[in-house]
Amino acid sequence: MAVVVDDLLLARIVVAGDPVEVVGSGVVSTGYWWYRLCRAVLGGGSSGSLSSHFSGVDPETRRLLLTELPLDVEIHGMQTLAPLAAATAHEAAASDIRLNTLAAEAVAAVRSEGTALHVATHSPALADAARVFGFDYHLVR
Amino acid sequence: MVQLSIRLNAGLRDRIRRAARQEGTTVQSFVIEALDRALAEHSDDRLRAARRRLGAAIESGAYADYIASIDDPDLRTE
């Protein structure tokens, strides 16, 4: 079963070329995490340190890097997840957990897939949401 | 189809003719296929280099720093 991954794990998968090498299965990620990764690679809003890693890589190659996702990677975005994301944010608020749009979309993806969440960047809000909504939260180092 | 004219030394031209003959094809087809392959390899090389750079950004912590620097309330990790 595919698991939901954050953008840092997605970036590792882009480098490895195979999600199984990184998390042991196919993966789903979200539109917001995918957008963060695209912004990092294409340069918009990225930090100076990150930009320096991509200096000398032409824009066409950067786009190619992003369009050649491995076959076992799916991106699920707000077009399909928005109703569940909105309901999730509302339900979380009832438990005093504030989910921003990125987190609400991520939890909606997990609930929609009935799977686990694997992240490489710890998120206290997502860890709290995992307890409330009853899904597995794995911090991958 | 368009025509591309380039100047070659005679030795290379002869080797191309021989190779095309060995392949049982015309010089034109042989050259077109060779150019296609060269372009694909060039693209693959650039892609591999870009992957290595993304890998280096992850390993060095630059990607984590980028995530930590996001101040958009809808996009940041909370």
Structure description:
The complex is a heterodimer of chains A (141) and B (78). Chain A has 141 residues and is of the alpha/beta class. Chain A is built from eight helices and five strands. Chain A has helices spanning 7-16, 19-23, 31-42, 48-54, 59-67, 78-94, 101-113, 124-133; strands at residues 3-5, 27-30, 73-76, 117-119, 137-139. A five-stranded parallel beta sheet of chain A has the order 3-2-1-4-5. In chain A, helix 8 links the parallel strand 4 and strand 5. Chain A starts with a strand and ends with a strand. The relative contact order of chain A is 0.19. The mean pLDDT of chain A is 93. Chain B has 78 residues and is mainly α. Chain B has three helices and no strands. The N and C termini of chain B lie far apart (56 Å). The A-B interface holds A 6-8, 11-12, 14-15, 17, 32, 35-36, 40-41, 45-47, 49-50, 52-54, 57-58, 61-62, 64-65, 68, 98, 100-103, 121-125 and B 43, 46-47, 49-58, 60, 62-67, 69-70, 73-78.
Summarize the structure.
With 141 residues, chain A is an alpha/beta fold. Chain A is 59% helix and 12% strand. The radius of gyration of chain A is 15 Å and the shape is globular.
For this structure, the quaternary state is heterodimer
The global form of chain A is: globular
Q: Which chains make the largest contact?
A: A-B, 38 and 28 residues
Largest β sheet strand count, sense and barrel closure of chain A: 5 strands, parallel
Number of helices of chain A: 8
User: CA-to-CA gap between the ends of chain A?
Assistant: 21 Å
